[in-house]
Amino acid sequence: MLDLFSIFSKGGIVLWCFQSTSEIFSPSVNALIRNVILQERSGNNSYNHNSLTLQYKLDNEFELVFVVAYQKILQLSYVDKFLNDIHLEFRDKYKNDLQSGHLATDFNFKASFDNILRQCEQWAKSQAKLPKQMRTFEDSFKSKKTVASMIERKGDEKNKKTVKIVENKSIANGKVEEFDYEDDVIVANRAKLAQKLASKGKKDVKKSPKSPKAVVENRTKKPRVWELGGDSRDLPTLDFSTDKEGDVEVSADTQLVGQMTGAIRDLEVESDDSSSEEEEQGKPSPKKTGGMFSIFKGLVGSKALNEETMRPVLDKMRDHLIGKNVAADIANKLCDSVATKLDGKVLGTFDSVAKTIKATLTESLMQILSPKRRVDILRDCLHAKQQGSPYVMSFCGVNGVGKSTNLAKICFWLIENDLSVLIAACDTFRAGAVEQLRTHMRRLLALHPPSAHNERCMVHLYEKGYGKDAAGIAAEAIKYAADAKIDVVLIDTAGRMQDNEPLMRALAKLIKVNQPDLVLFVGEALVGNEAVDQLVKFNQALADYSSSVNPHVIDGIVLTKFDTIDDKVGAAISMTYITGQPIVFVGTGQTYTDLKALNATAVVHALMK
């Protein structure tokens, strides 16, 4: 019932292979290698590709991979046992060849394979025939109850409590001992309350006027005047409701102009480690205690790592990652992936368990944050301009994460690189959404007036008001940009919760109808476990509600509010791990120049310190 079984090295050399059908399985195995093994996602030993389920086992000592493939519809209970048995049999039979590195040996493994497969199938049948055994009393939860957990408390009319203490001896003899006692805590609290009320009454008597001639001051609450709060006479100058579009003067900070030319600067994460390696050379380093990996620094020697050896440090690693704002589920998967990758690996004489695990985790995190494909928006925009069509970017996300603000930052960056932009106001739900984009447009035009670009208007706003169909407005905006020879279209959408099905259907419709070149999910760096739920459900909704064979899902991530988290950078790991898509932009402030590119090295360093 197995379609494929293969043993190959991590270098790509196939040592032995069994195939029951003439179907070509290389695309599925390549997908497993590309999407799981190379991306450090080996915590789960199964992977689904098309109609196949692939289960695998890694041998880290000899750098081997054992892969089994079968139809997804089948439920084979013996596959895990089969992989373990075949792994041990192959190691024991060809241990000398593997240690010597003779991978070109003709491995005659057919007889052993058939024997182990037959034994595992018979074992699965015997397990299916066995009736389910009831658990004993010692295995039940009730047997683990203590005497303290069996105490029952009941109140009576006199505010007394009867405590029934049930012991094993009393149960055996059929006796239950009862003890009555008065709750001293309630009595003491009542006495304190009575004393407090009595003292308060005396104070009120002293404060009462002794004669009817006493004058009581008329105390009127005065409004609080805040420091630097301004005067109420300035309020009329802050009322813009009656101003027209051309009446508002926008002050331009000319210092911002020219700072965003070219590629976006890399993100810099502050670190507490200010000492450099040059300063530490020649100085005896003090012996440090505590920390994430300190408990295993003394374990050195030539030994093979196993689950029992790594479990304590992996638990500390998981807690450390969760403390850095990595989602709990992602932290567990990362730890499982490290454990799977290092299981059976032999340490060198001067390698410690902690150092090896830390290096492996750092390598895994760098692999996760590294883009799997080329991300060069400026090049794509110029290519679309040469083709005579605008480059379209759509922004989506939940409420309040900063979609419109970061859209304006990206718009400023594009203008700095001499690309004209059309902003499509497709948030037709939130009050003030169009006015917010109009304000950004005015400020951007003040920074880059047409006179500085050969009388060419660099930013436009396409809006149709509120209550309209967002997909239709986006389609009209793209057509308008194509006719007006505008280079880039930025589509601003309404914020929506990932569980709101009608709004998620509307977003899927907008993306399917307009087919943007880039769909960016805007998420804030403050979230932890919620980041996983948001990205999974947004991606799933775009796939389910698009009614397309190849739905357009999320292409990249915009991580906002990064300046508010210090070194709690775990949201970057959580979001990238879920989708496998790169973090294209990072918002770090409130000015147009506060837009950075993700620096994987700096993020991993902040995460591991």
UniProtKB/TrEMBL annotation:
Biological source species: Pieris brassicae (White butterfly)
Coiled-coil positions: none
Domain of life: Eukaryota
Localization terms from the record: Endoplasmic reticulum membrane
Protein name: SRP54-type proteins GTP-binding domain-containing protein
UniProt xrefs under PANTHER family: SIGNAL RECOGNITION PARTICLE RECEPTOR SUBUNIT ALPHA
GO molecular function: GTP binding; GTPase activity; signal recognition particle binding
Region Disordered: start-end pairs: 197-242, 268-291
Its membrane topology: Peripheral membrane protein
